[in-house]
């Protein structure tokens, strides 16, 4: 600081050198006091002396990668390990890593927050170094080189006092050529929970353990009897395999006292894999055989064993986004009805697959953020409890402690307000050992501090972590929970019991207004057009199912696919959500188009009446019924169909077959007449596209009349000739002696004048052209 006041290129005068040394002495005195850990007082908090150490303490990065045990007893040995890396430009010499413990417990939860945010060394706030043999020394720290350290110290040597949370720092001291005296060059802080005996009143702690996944199943199934499902990809198999996210959640949760919160869609997807499945190829049209049935079966069996006798909360099927429904879906007709269907489907899936009776009394909005509209939607399907979070339900009564989670919010609804600090403790990147270690220590410290806020007042605290923890996050969560289970200030309570706990009369019960709903969360919601697309798909499904013989083969997979379109998992993935919705709708449309009229060419009628065939094709695997085919004339005065304007005939077709339906027509004039064929459902709704063609009616031509007349004349002449020949033969027979006698001597002819009547004489075999309609089997030329 003094050198900066000298002019460049000149030597400081004796007077200036004296002033500089005096200033250095004044600045160094508080620093020395800090290094010697003098009692905290005004000097320790002085502004001037704290600045130099703050600069130096950023030279070396100290990483605290492991601390065991998390909450030690007085007979334990505390082991701290990690790495130090010199980020400066000069080699550090005479370095050592030591532990510093605060002289007194921290005063509250906010002090834990403040200590965790500090990044530089501050004398008086970072405690006294344990020193002695409990250090790890380094002769040289070369720039850019990482070196490991490990320190083990008996807990008794830490000289901890009253129960509470102590700040524990790992600091590296050393010197360099530019800083030729020992000082703190790097520091990392964490927290040491200290409870010497079991608390008289323990905090009841509820931890939600979520088994929720992204959407994996498509709406498509194979056409076989089992309706083999088709998956979007094979990522679910990776999550279920050893080391995968879901396998880790299951294995870790099995050993913990937790409340399982399960999306039934995940169960249904895994069960589908166990029975054989296919995976959609990148082209979206073809698929390949899935090969991970064994992994899925093992995971499902392990889950069934893990939840036996435990509390299980079933979310509505596919975990629908309640906030999106409340803010963007309510204006779209029919959107809220899906929530009740999803709830019923979720219960059925959990009962069938896991053989347990789940609770469906809980609704869990994204991030626990609520407003009145979200509460209304959340409870519309029968839930009476909404899982919120304390950063949404902010306390307004100046409480000095964390209140019990349950509180009534009106209308018979209870809000279970999860603790925000504890719920978000493991949302960061837990793949780094340092991040995981610090998160675990801070979580456990906050838990103990809650108990110490009001030791004689028992409270129920609920923790609702992120919906889909990674494997590393789950491991950190499990380590922290294991410490609580073995600790002396916390006891497990399931979610149902926590919801029924006696509310704190001072805790806020006012639901936050819609205006304070977080803007960042609102940006992630499904937009209104998404719900309009869902409405259109549902309408198409309802029209389609009425014609199906086995409607469950279509209604069930598409109903669940519609649930998946509203999933909370689409947050932050708008393009994927749109693609999934479009895929469901397009596939349903493809199926409906498998039942259709076959296009035909124009027809020609060569007469007053005829039949016109129209063909219907069913390319579905199953049969269709409850369809009517209507053939309509656009000019009934010239061409009547049936008895007038149109005729309807019932249609029922087996799967993979076609049917030709014949309609009776009557022509009253020549010329073309437009005709349309259209399928209708029983309730009169048009089904599919109409087929349009012309029927061309032609009169009988003169040439045809001449041919017919000539033929009739030939027939008459032939008959007359036969008649005259028989008469001539009869006369000749009479002239030769009369007829022969019969066996009894009777004549074969009667007496009298004239020729005898010939019983075999033919009657006329022609008649005038009939004016009646032709037979209905008359051929129609195309």
Automatic annotation (TrEMBL):
Q: Where are the transmembrane segments?
A: 703-723
Name the UniProt key words of this record, in alphabetical order. Answer: Membrane, Transmembrane, Transmembrane helix
Q: Which InterPro entries match?
A: DUF6049
Q: Which Pfam families match?
A: DUF6049
Q: Where is this region: Disordered?
A: 731-782
| Name of the protein in question | DUF6049 family protein
Q: Which organism is it from?
A: Streptomyces huasconensis
């Amino acid at each position: 600081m003094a050198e900066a006041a000298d002019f460049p290129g000149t030597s400081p005068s004796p007077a200036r050198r004296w002033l500089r040394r005096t200033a250095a002495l004044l600045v160094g005195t508080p620093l020395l006091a800090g290094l010697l850990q003098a009692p905290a007082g005004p000097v320790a908090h002085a502004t001037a002396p704290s600045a130099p150490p703050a600069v130096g303490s950023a030279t070396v990065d100290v990483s605290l990668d492991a601390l065991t045990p998390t909450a030690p007893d007085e007979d334990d040995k505390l082991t701290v390990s990690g790495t130090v890396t010199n980020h400066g430009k000069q080699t550090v010499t005479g370095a050592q890593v030591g532990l510093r413990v605060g002289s007194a417990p921290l005063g509250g939860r906010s002090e834990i927050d403040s200590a965790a945010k500090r990044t530089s060394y501050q004398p008086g706030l970072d405690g006294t170094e344990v020193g002695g043999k409990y250090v790890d020394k380094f002769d040289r720290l070369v720039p850019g080189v990482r070196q490991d350290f490990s320190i083990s110290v008996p807990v008794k040597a830490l000289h901890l006092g009253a129960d509470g949370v102590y700040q524990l720092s790992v600091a590296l001291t050393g010197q360099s050529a530019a800083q030729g005296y020992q000082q703190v060059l790097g520091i990392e802080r964490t927290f040491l929970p200290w409870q010497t005996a079991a608390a008289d009143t323990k905090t009841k702690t509820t931890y939600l353990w979520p088994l929720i996944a992204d959407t994996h199943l498509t709406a498509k199934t194979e056409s076989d009897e089992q309706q083999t499902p088709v998956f979007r990809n094979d990522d679910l198999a990776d999550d279920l395999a050893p080391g995968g996210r879901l396998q880790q959640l299951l294995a870790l949760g099995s050993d913990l006292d937790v409340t399982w919160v399960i999306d039934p869609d995940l169960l249904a997807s895994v069960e589908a894999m166990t029975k054989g499945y296919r995976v959609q190829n990148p082209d979206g049209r073809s698929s390949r055989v899935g090969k991970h049935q064994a992994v899925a079966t093992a995971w499902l069996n392990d889950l069934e064993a893990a939840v036996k006798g435990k509390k299980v909360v079933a979310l509505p099927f596919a975990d629908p986004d309640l906030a999106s429904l409340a803010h963007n879906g309510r204006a779209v007709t029919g959107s809220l009805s899906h929530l009740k269907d999803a709830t019923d489907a979720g219960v059925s899936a959990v009962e069938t697959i896991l053989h347990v009776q789940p609770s469906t009394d809980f609704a869990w909005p994204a991030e626990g953020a609520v407003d009145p509209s979200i509460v209304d939607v959340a409870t519309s399907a029968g839930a009476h409890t909404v899982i919120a979070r304390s950063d949404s339900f902010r306390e307004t009564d100046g409480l000095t402690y964390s209140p019990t989670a349950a509180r009534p919010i009106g209308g018979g609804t209870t809000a279970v307000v999860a603790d925000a600090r504890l719920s978000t403790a493991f949302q960061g990147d837990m793949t780094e050992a340092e991040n995981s270690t610090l998160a675990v220590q801070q979580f456990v410290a906050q838990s103990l501090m809650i108990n110490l806020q009001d030791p004689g007042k028992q409270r129920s605290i609920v923790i609702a972590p992120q919906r889909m923890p990674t494997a590393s996050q789950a491991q950190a969560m499990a380590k922290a929970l294991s410490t609580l289970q073995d600790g002396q200030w916390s006891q497990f309570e399931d979610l149902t019991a926590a919801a029924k706990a006696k509310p704190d009369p001072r805790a806020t019960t006012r639901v936050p207004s819609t205006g304070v709903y977080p803007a960042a969360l609102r940006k992630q919601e499904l937009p209104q057009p998404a719900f309009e697309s869902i409405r259109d798909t549902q309408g198409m499904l309802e029209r389609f199912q009425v014609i199906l013989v086995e409607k469950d083969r279509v209604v069930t997979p598409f109903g669940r696919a519609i649930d998946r379109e509203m999933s909370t998992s689409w947050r932050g993935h708008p393009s994927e959500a749109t693609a999934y919705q479009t895929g469901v709708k397009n596939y349903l449309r493809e199926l409906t188009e498998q039942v259709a009229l076959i296009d035909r060419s124009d027809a020609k009628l060569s007469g007053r009446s005829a039949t016109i065939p129209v063909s219907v094709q069913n390319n579905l695997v199953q049969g269709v019924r409850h369809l009517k085919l209507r053939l309509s004339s656009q000019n009934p005065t010239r061409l009547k169909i049936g008895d007038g304007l149109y005729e309807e005939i019932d249609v029922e077709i087996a799967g993979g077959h076609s049917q030709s339906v014949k309609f009776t027509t009557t022509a009253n004039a020549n010329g073309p007449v437009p005709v349309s064929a259209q399928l209708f459902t029983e309730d009169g709704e048009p089904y599919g596209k109409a087929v349009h063609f012309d029927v061309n009616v032609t009169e009988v031509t003169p040439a045809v009349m001449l041919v017919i007349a000539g033929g009739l004349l030939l027939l008459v002449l032939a008959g007359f000739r036969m008649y005259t020949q028989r008469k001539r033969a009869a006369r000749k027979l009479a002239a030769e002696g009369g007829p022969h006698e019969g066996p009894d001597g009777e004549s074969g002819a009667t007496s009298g004048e004239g020729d005898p009547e010939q019983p075999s004489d033919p009657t006329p075999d022609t008649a005038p052209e009939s004016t009646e309609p032709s037979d209905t089997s008359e051929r129609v030329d195309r």
